[in-house]
Amino acid sequence: MSVMRFLGVNSREAMRQVRDALGDDALILSNQRVEEGVEVVAVADEVQSSLVEQAEPVAAPASSAPGQDRLYAEMQAMRELLMSHIAETPRPRRARPGVHGVLRQRLITAGFSARLVREMLAALPDELSDVAADDPRLLAWTRRQLETRLAVLDDEAAMLEDGGVFALVGPTGVGKTTTTAKFAARYVMRFGGEDVALVTTDDYRIGAHEQLRIYARLLGVDVHAVHHEDDLEGLLSALEGKRMVIVDTVGMSQRDQRVAGQIARLGGAGRPVRRLLLLNAASHGDTLEEVAETYQRASRDAGAPLYGCLLTKVDEAPRLGAALDVVMRHGLRLYYVSHGQRVPEDIRLAEAPALLDEALAVGQGSPFTFDENVLTDMLRPTDAGQDLQALSRDLMAQRHQLMRVMETLQRDVPGMALMAAAWRHRESPRAMQQTWLESHLTPPPMVKTWREAQATGLFWPGGRPRGMDWMAPMLPLDAHGDVLPMAWPLHRWPPSDTQRLTLARRHLGSHWHVFARMPDVEVRQQLQEAGSPWLARARVQQRVWYAGERLAIGDVVDLAESCGQHTCRLRGRERRVTLACLPVSLTADDTEALQLWIATSHDPESGRQRGVYHWLGHRGDALEIDMRACVYRQLEQDDLLRLMRTAWQQLGASMDCELRVYLAAQLAALSLRMELSDEGWAVDTRPLVKRLAGERKRRSPETLLHGLMHLLTAHTALSQAS
């Protein structure tokens, strides 16, 4: 009987393995959680059929013994039980291969390691888990994930102009001498050869000195030979006047015990030596991994990590995935790519998009590409030594992943860098916290920060939220109505709302406003005089004038005219929202003509009503479409103050109250922005942030808020450890 056992990190992964191996009609015999994950025992459909055929009833001989009768009855009972189980087993339609499987195979075929693939699949956003394999969003996400991991040289001109001493290191036969000439040619073509010197320390290879001298004559640069590596320090001192010095070192296998000594001697030279590792792109991934690990460890022991790396023999590599994978996972910056013997033509600046296009363009599989089950078994440690090594690598991968997420957030989210700096002061003495607050949250720096973020709107929290001891800060809004994580504590604003409105209009460029509660008469008059659109959350008991009568909003809801439908995300769930509006006034003479907006949310599956929300706001036909979009967005952000209260309570009372309310508002705003945004940065960072909050938690703003707190804590600890 072909009973098979499958092991996955979760039920979905295990069931996917069952479907791939036995088909959709497999019979599940058991499903249980074990230490390694989830274990599923299954049997193929044809085995079911054979069991049924074997269990067909047979005529019992008339002279059968009592024991045979009992056996016959048991066989009949087993047959009935098996048939009923088969009848109750769901027979799903044969589905196309899942996104995880297609993406896994695509990356493995390109040469990327199973470890990197597993890390990427763990970060796959929920919204991409069911799309087609050729969906542009999936392809764009894959490229972004790889591009953020691949660091390349940003400015070649600045690097060459700064100059310095560069030592090219690596195994034998990787192309160090030829690459030395190509590297020097890049400088000579820009600045000439007067300030360049080539140095060779290779006494092992016959003709090494002569080969470099030929290149030097062609380029018009000086060349020097060091016959003993201990003489290198004196030579570098003599070449102090040269802007660019390139050292061609002796090639050594990564398993040669002299590697550490060679790297140490380079580090002991008088001038700082920047070590560039050369990696043969045509080598096997395991070889490249060993080379990078050995030379990086030796370089760190010598006082500084590798400065970067170059890929050689790219024209000989059938797949670039393995080489790029090693560069990514070891955090090396890729400078150049060499693809031939010609000097200076066959070298180019490393560009991440072009390299990844080339890596992912592999069209056919390889006889050396294992299937996913074999890769899973290969990655499972088999002894204590491998266990520790795997744990160390996993921790390094998680560290790099956390750092990438923080880099993405700080690059693409206004206010994130400031929030990370504030978080680092969370455990500082209160005097230091106050010093930081005074230097960053006073009007001059905040006005500059808000203007740089192009904030066009302003959210007024309307006092102290329930459960908080401090007034909630003001928050800016972008042109789409999304709240920006750039909180400004209220006590640092002018004392009155009218003065705050003047400051916002004149100095911050805030032309429209959203209020958590109805503004007072003076503010409404000032808004009307300035022609500024505004929107305020209203209670159902709020009284308005309609058709000559003063009625509660709840009494006029049924009179409103429907003006659209939209699908929104409310507290992490999809809701179908119906919007209606009604012209009303706050005065009997209609001098304060407003628009009443009513949003009713329903469950999209059951149609059950989930909530009714009311706003009062500026009335104007020219702005109706904008205001409608604003209402939808503010409905999705209606949870802002509740999230702020949750963050306030989670932060605890040990820190300065102003820092505490600032961080609470920042976390609430960022968790909402991350939940609602469809931009690349949000799609890429959401999975990890959600996972930090707990594997089983549903995606929601509150889940992301807890994940952000874990992310900031981990980032601070890793930064301090570094």
Automatic annotation (TrEMBL):
SUPFAM superfamilies: P-loop containing nucleoside triphosphate hydrolases
GO molecular function: GTP binding; GTPase activity; signal recognition particle binding
AAA+ ATPase domain residues: 162-366
Domain SRP54-type proteins GTP-binding: 163-361
Record's keyword annotation contains Protein transport: yes
UniProt cross-references to Gene3D superfamilies, sorted A to Z: P-loop containing nucleotide triphosphate hydrolases (3.40.50.300)
One GO cellular component term noted in the UniProt record for this chain: plasma membrane
GO biological process terms, semicolon-separated: bacterial-type flagellum organization; protein transport; SRP-dependent cotranslational protein targeting to membrane
One Pfam entry name: SRP54
InterPro entries: AAA+_ATPase, FlhF, FlhF__GTPase_dom, P-loop_NTPase, SRP54_GTPase_dom
Membrane topology: Peripheral membrane protein
Compartments it resides in: Cell membrane
Keywords: Bacterial flagellum biogenesis, Bacterial flagellum protein export, Cell membrane, Cell projection, Cilium, Flagellum, GTP-binding, Membrane, Nucleotide-binding, Protein transport, Transport
Function: Necessary for flagellar biosynthesis. May be involved in translocation of the flagellum.
Family: Belongs to the GTP-binding SRP family.
NCBIfam families: FlhF (TIGR03499)
Name the record gives this protein: Flagellar biosynthesis protein FlhF
Organism: Chromohalobacter marismortui
